[in-house]
Design a protein that fits this description.
- By secondary structure, the chain is of the alpha/beta class.
- It has 3 domains: 221 residues, Rossmann fold (3-Layer(aba) Sandwich), CATH 3.40.50.11930; 118 residues, Rossmann fold (3-Layer(aba) Sandwich), CATH 3.40.50.2000; 128 residues, Roll (Chitinase A, domain 3).
- It is 38% helix and 22% strand.
- The protein has an 8-stranded mixed β-sheet. A 5-stranded parallel β-sheet has the order 13-12-11-14-15.
- Strand 12, helix 11 and strand 13 form a beta-alpha-beta unit.
- Helix 2 packs across helix 4, helix 6 packs parallel to helix 8 and helix 18 packs parallel to helix 19.
- The longest helix is centred in the middle third of the chain and has 19 residues.
- The relative contact order is 0.08.
Length: 507
């Protein structure tokens, strides 16, 4: 292996790009490797537009489908002369190739089955691929782990052919939550995927996770050392001084129900009537009519379309507030609890104020303290504003039926005997719910909140109250850390008395 820099073959669904999240993240992760020492085998319909890598080999669903019926292999190679970096957004092929891709990206269990079956029958193990990889002579294979089986098969085949190790990178969770909560066919597919991933670890030099939570759980899952690698955003070249910035902006996709908390924020802004912040400008490639219909002035949102590459960087650099959101609800939490959006790093480096809104089971004082301590290692206290909640959640637990437990048999979900749901309540509404139930709240030293529970409606209710006592505990931490101030969420859910309390700690 070269002492200056390894030669790395990347096996991934997406191509390197300055627009798509996966493409950008891979560019940043592998950006220290000279372009001539990088090669990429990928399966998306995109055409390369970045010279961070000079050797590309593409096999698409359309190529594989063609080979199933004709037994003739199809593929496409791109070298430096074929790459046009003046194109801001990654180009894509059209026609039949696009149609096949649009079909394959529907993530139903049956599509998974059909697509993996097609690749199993297809002619990808070709002389051209063997000659191309041997000519490049990689020192290692970097596998961007996904939720289809065929990239693992291809990476394992090439690893054995070339006698080189695999470095497996996990940017999303494809192994734990789908097996817990997916339907039967999906759970079976995920078990097969996990078996392939474990085979990859047998030839691994390293497994890379995107977050500490994933790192911890994946070490237990694989029985193999896993390390967290965080991707930082590049310094924003277009950052303006604070007094020249304007607007509140959301940039990114609206999948996994993110539209719901975004609408909550938009409606709250309309209600607050803050000059210059009447609506949230939404920049997204979203195309679903039902979602676009909900992005309107009545919901405090304005749809501004898609931006790519440098245009996103310019937008972040001139915006006063940037929004980072994740949806509430069991499905959304399960799908995102290990994830870390690429927009987080980009937003942090932009110089804008950040408004983050998403689920947190219990807003405990320890969570606040931990967040402040970690933030102050990177950012000076006079630039940090801590958020405090004006609402809480009422949790409801009911025992699972024998039928539900039977369906979950063999999964980790079966070890949890209760179903859990919740709803958000304002401060006065939450306190009244305890009174109406005839329950008594008691101070919990660990969370620094008043806690109550009671039985009703065939289950157990639990609530950690946000009130003057819990807010004061948080304000003392904020004051002691000498932060620039506090932000409150959401207006209209507070008790009127809390403003006097806040003014005692924040000047």
């Amino acid at each position: 292996m070269s002492l200056e820099s390894p030669r790395v073959l990347v096996v991934s669904h997406n191509v390197f790009s300055n627009s798509g999240n996966m493409g950008k993240t891979m560019m940043r992760m592998l950006g220290g490797i000279p372009p001539e020492r990088l090669a990429q085998l990928y399966f998306h319909q995109e055409i390369p537009t970045r010279k961070c890598c000079l050797h590309y080999f593409r096999i698409t669903d359309s190529d594989i489908l063609h080979s199933v019926f004709t037994r003739r292999a199809r593929y496409k190679k791109f070298e430096e002369k074929d790459i046009d970096e003046s194109v801001m957004r990654s180009r894509t092929d059209t026609g039949n190739l696009a149609k096949v891709y649009q079909f394959s990206r529907r993530r139903t269990p049956m599509i998974y089955l059909l697509r993996n079956w097609m690749w199993t029958l297809g002619k990808w193990k070709t002389k051209a691929l063997r000659e191309w990889t041997k000519s490049f002579a990689p020192d290692a294979i970097f596998l961007a782990a996904g939720d289809y089986a065929f990239p693992y098969h291809i990476a394992l085949y090439l690893s054995k052919l070339l006698d080189v190790p695999i470095i497996m990178w996990c940017a999303d969770d494809f192994f734990i939550e789908p097996r817990r909560n997916g339907k039967l066919l999906r759970r079976i597919q995920c078990r097969n995927l996990l078996d392939l991933a474990r085979k990859a670890t047998e030839r691994s030099k390293s497994v890379i996770a995107i977050s500490d939570a994933m790192q911890r759980d994946y070490e237990q899952l694989f029985g193999f050392p896993v390390q967290t690698v965080r991707i930082s955003g590049e310094e924003n070249r277009f950052s303006l001084p604070r007094d020249q910035r304007s607007g509140i902006v959301y940039v990114g996709n609206l999948g996994i129900h993110r539209i719901d908390p975004l609408i909550e924020l938009g409606c709250a802004l309309r209600k607050a009537k803050i000059p210059g912040f009447e609506t949230i400008c939404v920049y997204s490639g979203e195309q679903k009519p039902e979602t676009l219909q909900r992005i309107n002035e009545e919901n405090g949102l304005s749809f501004c379309g898609y931006l790519a590459g440098e245009e996103v960087e310019k937008l972040l650099g001139r915006s006063k507030f940037l929004i980072i959101i994740e949806a509430f609800g069991k499905e959304a939490v399960c799908r995102t609890r290990y994830s870390l959006s690429t927009k987080v790093a980009e937003s942090l480096r932009s110089g804008a104020c950040i408004l983050a809104y998403g689920p947190q089971d219990v807003a405990s004082i320890s969570y606040l303290q931990d967040g402040i301590e970690k933030t102050l290692k990177k950012v000076s206290a006079d630039k940090v504003i801590a958020g405090i909640p004006f609402f809480t959640r009422l949790w409801f637990e009911t025992a699972k039926s024998p039928e539900q437990l039977s369906e979950e048999a063999g999964t980790e979900a079966a070890s949890y005997p209760n179903k859990v749901s919740s709803k958000a309540l304002g401060m006065e509404e939450a306190a009244q719910s305890v009174v109406n139930a005839g329950a008594t709240a008691q101070w919990d030293e660990k969370t620094q909140q008043n806690y109550a529970k009671w039985s009703a409606d065939g289950g157990t209710y639990r609530i950690w109250l946000e009130d003057a006592q819990s807010l004061e505990a948080k304000l003392k931490v904020i004051q002691g850390s000498k932060l620039a101030g506090v932000a409150e969420w959401s207006l209209g859910r507070e008790e009127s008395s809390v403003w006097k309390l806040i003014s005692q700690y924040v000047n």
